[in-house]
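User: Second chain of the day. Same drill as before.
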Amino acid sequence: MVFLQLKLELDCKAFKSLVSIQLKQIFKLLIMPCRYKEVEVLLKKLEKQMTLALLWSDAHPSDVDLNSQAPFACDKIPFEHWLQFIFIPKMTMVVNSRNSLPQNLVLMPMAEQSFLGRSHLSKVLLVIAEIDRWFECFSRESRV
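Assistant: Same format as last time:
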């Protein structure tokens, strides 16, 4: 009787594990393509607002500056260059390759600090806040 109970418990755990794996696969197949498109749209909105705010640069930072180990490469380049030359290209690669989207993405504190006193950048900040909200919701959904 103990053996049968143990086997049933193991079968139940295996079943739950299998269902969990299958649900994750269904999520990835059905929902993730929409998520990638949403991120792509947000990236394009950010690029557009940065261009309109004259933050988009034709001058490309050096490879040394782009390879900074500091958060947002803040020791080498301004935040808007980090967005243009690091964040947007890396996120575009993630979207195009359908790799895993980041779980904890928070840009707004750095954006607010970097753009402090520059009221003409309010639309850029709105898009960055939208990106943060999207990733916050995505992270919550992914944990379920």
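The helical segments are 2-30, 32-52, 63-66, 79-97, 108-114, 122-143.

User: Great, on to the next one.
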